[in-house]
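Protein Entry — a single chain follows
Next Lines — sequence and tokenised fold
***
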Amino acid sequence: YGTGPGAVSQCGNIFFSISESFRSLHCDLVMNLSAADRCAFVKNTPDCKMEDGFINYLQVAFCLLPPNLTPLTITLCVRCVTLISFFSLFLPSFCPNLSAISTSLHLTHNVAGVTFLALGNGAPDVFSAMAAFSHPHTAGLAVGALFGAGIFVTTVVAGSVALVKPFAVASRPFLRDVIFYMAAVFWTFVMLYRGTTTLGETLGYLGLYVVYVLTVIISAYIYNRQKHSMNVAPIPEFHSSDSSDDESEYRPLLPYSESTIKILLSSLNPVDNRKWRRKSWSWRVLKVLKTPLEVLLLLCIPVVDPDKEDRNWRRPLNCLHLITAPLVCALTFQSGIYGDYMIQGQFPLWLLIFLLGLFLSAIVFCTTTNECPPKYHPLFALLGFVVSAVLISAAASEVVSLLHMLGVVLSLSNTVLGLTLLAWGNSIGDSFSDITIARQGYPRMAISACFGGIIFNMLFGVGLGCLLQMVQTHSYVQFEAEGLLTWILAASLGLSLVLSFVIVPLCRFHLGRAYGIFLIVFYAIFLLIALLTEFGKIHIV
């Protein structure tokens, strides 16, 4: 090009044109480049930026690891997705704290079940959807995960419940849940078809869940009135027999007082010696692997359990929570952007939070005793709920970032990753719990959880995700349906609900093994069609 000023200007123009070309490219094109050019591509292409997670997994895959380790990278990322999904599932504090909050607010079981407890069960799905909606290119991941989890739960899980324990389902609650879920799916389908949604439509989407909650409350009130007039004895509630039996069997005859140090050490020990002795070796291995993370969670998250006599009051540990819990929130909220924040450029925010927590901790420690919880102890449930929500949100952001990287490396759409890996990971806990409940003789409760919980996940996952995106961008939310696969997913979910709405009443609301086999076969056919569509075997001419 020469050595004069014109050559410098020409090189600058070339560099500017290259930068502009990077800006207009999609990140999926990185796999079409040679191994030597991929690192520069992901660093300079805005579409490859990952601002919602702690780690840019694309740069890890293409810049830090050699090209011949790509299969190992994929394997490790799949393992990380599994671990992060389990991280959201075995947070032991979320549901007890939600139960304590609902008890403190004097909410009925019906209202608590469709609000706070629904949030506890569906937190991974909701937070994953909210994290996916934060970026336009991962919105398909949210739709795929919510639709994929919906069809998985309503077919495989519901079918497994029917196979394990054939039973007669309660007619009115079943029809109510199916109708509301069909309405939510249809509304989401309309938004995908139009490609956009307004603020009014988003608020109406959230309002549909309010109508559902009111319907549950009114239905329960009418049912209780009828039951009371007929003088029918109330059905005993189902409680987990594991913890309650252990507590009653090993409760000491005489009260004893422990020192503060012993209370702290016992509170940080997640291993129950009695349970350890009678469990299998596989359970012990898994427990050993989970113990370090469980200890960290015990250090950071206060748990208020309304089922315990002392409501799980642990004075030294709860005082420590006043220091650790706010710090965890500050260091993990929105991928830790506030960890390095300086107040007026001089004083770190985390140090101010630490000093305030230390001050509150000293006050609580000096004004309480080890034996008696204070009157404000329920506030620790609110603190534990906030910390759990922040951690689950952070884990969900990492899951979305990992799946986005897998989609780029494997040349898979976000929709198919959402309806498979993310949907399975978020639903595995509900699957085991619902099937276990059915085995113990409560299939009605299990089938209600199958249909009732996913209504919350769908309406709040899409509704809150769109609303937060509108608040951040001050514009409408754009939906980009990823080809034929999105429509197959929506149509399959709608068809499964319509078939259940027709077949179950025809069977006089008796769910037998034939119905369970039908649902599982339906899901297998759907998954086969979805994968064939993803790999180009099925397409529109």
The radius of gyration is 26 Å. The CA atoms of residues 247 and 308 lie 9 Å apart. The chain is about 70% helix and 0% strand.
